[in-house]
Amino acid sequence: MSMFGSSNLMKPIPFAGAGILDNDQQLNPDFYNWNKVYVRNCDGASFSGDAEGQAQDGTTLYFKGLHIYEAVIDELMEKGLSNATKLRTLWGNETTIFLHISGPPYRLFCWWSSHDVALR
Length: 120
Known about the structure:
Shape: globular
Distance between the termini: 43 Å
């Protein structure tokens, strides 16, 4: 098994629930009661991968970030994202914005931007 193309060997997130993700109003007065989602970038291709390949040693690598992206958005839509009016984006890869912006605006799921994204 390879560290690349799989989440099986990922370590737990050390900062979950801290800083801007904290639910404590005293520690995070601006965002304590917002819905928060953290998705690790696992395919190295801004959640656009849709292929399989083999490393030189024969290990199969899966680049299925697009499927992960779609599953995350579908799950969030079922849980109320379709009613959202704003999305605060943080961390990661701004290329994701440009790769996934062609669909309806609420399908946008991105990281890094330091400003609000209007969903409607």
